[in-house]
Amino acid sequence: MIKVDRVYKRYKENQYALSDCSLEIDRGEFVFVVGASGSGKSTLLRLLLREERPDSGEVWVAGKELSAMPGWKVPFFRRNIGSIFQDFRLLPNKTVFDNVGFALEVIGKSKRHITTQVPQMLELVGLHDKQERFPDELSGGEQQRVAIARAFINKPLILLADEPTGNLDPENSWSVMGLLERINRTGTTVLMATHDVGIVDSMRRRVIELENGQIKRDQTRGVYGLGQTST
Amino acid sequence: MAISLEYVVKETSGNLWRNRLMSLAAVLTISVSLALAGASLLLKQGVSTATSQWKGGVQLLIFMQPTATNAQTSTVERQLKSLPEIKSYYYMDQAKSYQEFKQLMANSPDLLQSVTESQIPPSFRVVLKNPSAAPSVGSLFQQQAGVKDVNFNRGAINTMLHVTSIAQFVIVGLAAILLISASVLILNVIRVAIFSRRREVAVMKLVGATNWFIRVPFMLEGMVQGLVGSIVAAGAVVGIQALFQYVIQHFNVTILSNFLVSSHDVLMTELFVVAMGIIVGTAGSAFAVRRYLEV
Ligand SMILES: Nc1ncnc2c1ncn2[C@@H]1O[C@H](COP(=O)(O)OP(=O)(O)OP(=O)(O)O)[C@@H](O)[C@H]1O
Ligand SMILES: [Mg+2]
Fold first, then answer.
1. In this complex, which of B200, B205, B214 lies closest to A91 when CB atoms are compared?
2. In a 3-state reduction of DSSP, which class is residue B103?
3. Which of A172, A192, B282, B284 could lock onto B183 through a cystine, CB 3.0 to 4.6 A?
4. Closest residue to A107, CB basis, from B202, B207, B211
5. Sheet with B147-152, side-by-side order of all strands
6. Minimum CA–CA partner of B200 in chain A
7. pLDDT grade for B256, boundaries at 50, 70 and 90
């Protein structure tokens, strides 16, 4: 599903955000990406979303090689990828319903499709009674659930999450993780960058650790940091 | 991929409304500049029709009777050849004169109908070495057999041609400057629109909206501004033209009595004005989209 092959990426001369980075992720996996601040987690996710291109190496996502993909194909590629972020990225002047519907509207889906799909999706994330609220009338956790509804409404093959619980209290973090697990059970591959030790340690999923842009550790049923949790 | 009309209309009108003051400024600038450009084009047309008989520095017109015989015509011609004051001349036969008449009278179909080619006087168009000799040379032919009438350019026509060509130069220059400012204004309006919608644009890119889907509403916004501006300008051009005709007729400005723009000229000018408006609007927004909308 995802294959990164000897990828180098730098933003500035002689300062690699990723160097010689290779990894493979199968369909349906749930993978945490951990590592210190600046270790290259977001860069990795941006490469997978083709917001950035590698300086060298190959990035394969859903059967497509991204560094050679022409620009006009990128939007169609992205329709197979859902993404959520620490800052939610909701539109403040649109209601919950319209925020989720927007994702369908801008890829040319019909009104009827939108009016049937959006409520179903909001039901799934438990926000069907808040359809007409605006983002600033919701808690952080609720806002992130709206973002998840928007990311998942096209039933993407892959969900990329960059610190989705970074701004949330533990309770809201867990409700978000619950949703991501449910999404993962439908067969969607989930790749999540995080600093949240508790979540990583208790979920016991595959963990990839980055250090200075290199893969330091790749562990199935791993934990956040090797040292702290050997018990 | 089909871009839904409803979406485009909603987005474009939303953008226009949000930036209504700046949009208005852009529209007005386009209107003024294109009204100037259009009026100046019509002025050129009108003056060129009014003075078509005097083209090429002609200072003396000798009209022959439509019924003049070949012998009478060649007598006049022989005399023209022999006169030292004359630099050059040419002969407009009935067929050519009739063509010219048709152009001059393009807006008066009734008159055109009632006149046939055989009623049109042919003429000699004469260029003199010294324009001030026109009256004296003209008087030589006044009484000649077969000559209907002699007209000479008292310099007023030259002055008019001169003045209008300067006026036109100034007007076109002004219009060009205003058009450039209009497209810069539009560029700025679109830039602000793009900036104020950068969150939407980021989300659109994230969920896989195509580049054209993102661009079209912004491009259309500039195009609509250009179009509205040019329609206002087109109205103004018709108004200016009507006013001018009225003044000429009402105050009997004889030198411009032939000043006339055919409805065909007006139509072409209006089309030009509208096309320019659309081009300027689209160019301004296309530039802004290229420069500021990173898709
Ligand atoms: N747009 C950019 N321009 C220049 N340098 C950048 C850019 N984005 C990231 N970097 C640099 O690349 C390196 C990796 O950054 P990245 O954002 O991938 O780290 P991260 O692991 O996501 O960090 P964090 O945990 O703080 O989010 C850092 O040194 C960072 O300064
Ligand atoms: Mg990051």
1. B200
2. helix
3. B284
4. B207
5. B86-92, B123-128, B60-64, B147-152
6. A91
7. low
For a mutational test of ligand 1's pocket, the pick from A12, A41, A215, i.e. the residue with the most ligand atoms closer than 8 A to its C-beta, is A41
What is the rounded average pLDDT of the residues A194-208? 94
CA distance A74 to chain B (A): 7
> pLDDT tens for residues A117-140?
999 999 999 999 999 999 999 999
d(CA A33, CA A218): 9
List chain B residues with CB under 8 Å of A91: 199-200, 203
Q: What are the extents of the domains in chain B? A: 5-50+166-292, 60-151
Chain A contact for B199 (CB, 8 A cutoff): yes
* CB distance B64 to B72 below 8 Å: yes
Give bridge partners of residue B153 from the DSSP assignment.
none
Adjacent-strand bridge partners of B112: none
Helix, coil or strand: residue A218: strand
Strand-by-strand arrangement of the A2-12 sheet: A15-25, A2-12, A56-61, A64-65
Provide the strand spans (E) within chain A: 2-12, 15-25, 30-35, 56-61, 64-65, 81-85, 158-162, 189-193, 206-211, 214-219
Q: Which atom of ligand 1 is nearest to the CA of A195?
A: 25
* Partners of residue A108 in chain B, C-beta under 8 Å: 1-4, 213
Which of the four pLDDT bands, split at 50, 70 and 90, describes residue A231?
very low
Q: Hey, is the C-beta of B207 within 8 angstroms of any chain A C-beta?
A: yes
Q: Tokens representing B280?
A: 């300027």
The vertex-B150 CA angle with B159 and B143, nearest 5°, equals: 150
Residue B145 CA to residue B148 CA, distance in Å, equals: 8
What residues of chain B, 214 to 233, have a C-beta less than 8 Å from chain A?
Answer: 214
Q: What is the pLDDT of residue B154?
A: 63
Where are the extended beta strands (E) located within A66-200?
A: 81-85, 158-162, 189-193
Give the pLDDT score at A34. 96
Mean pLDDT confidence for B240-261:
71
**Side chain identity at A46, as an amino acid letter?**
R
Pocket lining for ligand 1, CB < 6 angstroms: A 11, 17, 35, 37-43
Q: Give the per-residue pLDDT at B1.
A: 47
Neighbouring residues of B26: CB distance < 8 A, sequence distance ≥ 6: B182, B185, B186, B189, B225, B229, B281, B284
pLDDT bucket at B252, cuts 50 / 70 / 90: low
- CATH architecture observed for domain B60-151: 2-Layer Sandwich (3.30)
| A70 touches B: beta carbon within 8 Å | no
**Nearest residue, CB atoms, A72 vs list B4, B205, B211:** B211
Alpha carbons A111 and A114: distance in angstroms, whole number: 5
